[in-house]
Design a protein that fits this description.
This protein has 277 residues and is α+β, with helices and mostly antiparallel strands. It has helices at residues 97-112, 130-144, 161-165, and strands spanning 19-24, 28-32, 37-41, 57-62, 72-73, 83-84, 199-200, 214-219, 231-234, 241-246, 258-261, 267-274. It has 3 helices and 12 strands. The strands form 5 sheets. A 4-stranded antiparallel β-sheet has the order 7-8-12-10, with no helix packed on it. Strands 1-4 form a two-stranded antiparallel ribbon. A two-stranded antiparallel sheet has the order 2-3.
């Protein structure tokens, strides 16, 4: 898995804005973009709470900020009538984005890999090294946050908690390569197996005629330099499902569960759902 390094070379990237704000472990965010102001908040846990002693990060990427105030409130609503007096010390540290990301991901990695608080089966797989995890966090930051040319909508807020935690829960597509020697005028059989669950139709999943549909797609020529003379598709374990739509040509009612595909057809699809019973 490639490693990506994020440095402060990404400063001054979001249009004409000269500052990006990122937070980690914060709990609240409100903004008034017309006035150029926003408010960030976090809870201070009491001693004995599971979150007691955790670090909270406010990261300023780009030009420094100067016009700010710190205010305490009785709860997370941050009502003007519930202000409380707080004492604080503001310290400014200058570093690269890569360094502070490394610090945060190290804390998360060590927390998820601590046998004191987690069962053995819940610990991180030993094959997933910290370097791999940190590399994925940097990759997501460079691809999906405002420091990149493309910002995914779910990551447009200042919090980067999702980017720090999601690498352990994402489904990935892995591509493997191997060499095959095909004798002149002959052939070689190659068997490849991949299991992938159907994609749930969230748009129509709540009700109506299309409720509960799961879709399966297959491409026949995507990125391949091989010319196939024949391709076949089969469906198994279909007693409790019905095919809503497809272009494979399966006819389960008449026992047709295996078909020969047209190699010139690039995309095949099938939408299925459980039978009523």
């Amino acid at each position: 898995m490639p490693l990506y390094n994020v440095t402060d070379s990404y400063i001054l990237t979001n249009g004409t804005d000269k500052t990006e704000i990122f937070t980690y472990n914060f709990n609240g965010f409100t903004s008034d973009y017309d006035a150029g102001k926003f408010q960030l908040s976090f809870f201070i846990p009491e001693k004995g709470w599971s979150t007691y002693g955790e670090s909270y990060y406010l990261i300023v990427l780009g030009d420094d900020i100067a016009d700010y105030t710190v205010q305490g409130y009785k709860n997370g609503a941050c009502k003007a009538t519930e202000k409380i007096k707080v004492t604080y010390e503001m310290n400014r540290y200058e570093t690269t984005l890569g360094k502070v990301l490394e610090t945060m991901t190290r804390e998360q990695y060590d927390s998820l890999n601590d046998p004191t608080y987690r069962a053995e089966d819940d610990l991180i797989n030993s094959e997933v090294t910290f370097e791999m995890y940190y590399g994925e966090v940097c990759r997501m930051m460079s691809q999906y946050k405002p420091i990149s040319d493309y910002s995914a909508q779910r990551y447009t807020g200042p919090e980067i908690d999702g980017i720090i935690s999601e690498p352990f829960g994402l489904s990935r597509v892995m591509f493997c390569t191997f060499s095959v020697t095909v004798p002149a005028g002959g052939g070689t059989e190659v068997m490849i197996s991949q299991v992938q669950g159907g994609s749930y139709d969230y748009y129509n999943g709540s009700g109506g005629a299309d409720a509960g549909i799961r879709g399966y797609d297959m491409v026949t020529t995507l990125g391949s330099r091989l010319d196939f003379s024949a391709q076949h598709a089969g469906i198994t374990n279909y007693d409790n499902i019905e095919i809503v739509s497809q272009n494979f040509g399966f006819d389960l009612e008449n026992g047709i569960a295996s078909v020969e595909l047209d190699v010139s057809e690039e995309h095949y699809y099938m939408n299925v759902r459980w039978k009523d019973d």
